[in-house]
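Protein: SDR family NAD(P)-dependent oxidoreductase
Species: Paenibacillus xanthanilyticus
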Amino acid sequence: MKQSVVLITGASRGIGEALALALLSRGDCVVGLSRGVSEETIAHERFMALNVDLSSLAEVEMAMHRLFETLTPDGLDSITLINNAAALAPLAPIEACAANDIASHLHVSTAAPTVLTSLFLHKTAEWPVPRTVAIMTSGFAGIPAASMSLYCASKAFLNMFVRCVREEQRLSPRPARVIAIDPGMAETDMQVFARSRQDESFPMGALLRQAHDAGQVLAPRDVAARIVRLLDEREADEQPVLRV
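Structure follows.
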């Protein structure tokens, strides 16, 4: 029986963990790329944890090389890369952000998904199975927000990156499916941290608290279920950015 393999960054918590559990429950094999691992995912025999610090591009590259030494298209129904992990901090005016914090944010939120996508597409270029790259984006890609310049700019970068790679894949003899998915607001550690901020330099905190109080923040498992449906609905690919 053929199986699908799904690579997920940031699979140890939040939406990434919920996605991993949803995919495992339906029989997919999941590879989690993160620094930690959740007890629920590691309990599954079809889950493989790949310890990697996404702020280190050398680690990212090494991890992908190691992984694809063990993966072949034989017996596969499909293979998917979900670039889910992202950094939120630093949440501060840019002049208050330290150089190391800026570099770490950009490595995790832009450089790592770019490198992972590049390696994934290169290593599977000749595989005769459906290939998908999905990148988690955000509505903040189009909303300028004080103290969130790095987060907003990173998501805007990813949206344009997806558009460009889609154009490249149209020229490929074996085109991969490339999409961005906006999961909306989910009750994750990032969401809790952001709405806990109440200083004047971060006015978005008040709006996030209002959204939470109004019941507009969904549970990660509900968001994950919607993302899985989008991944399955290939006819929805007319737009580069899909929303749950």
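Remarks: The chain has eight helices and seven strands.
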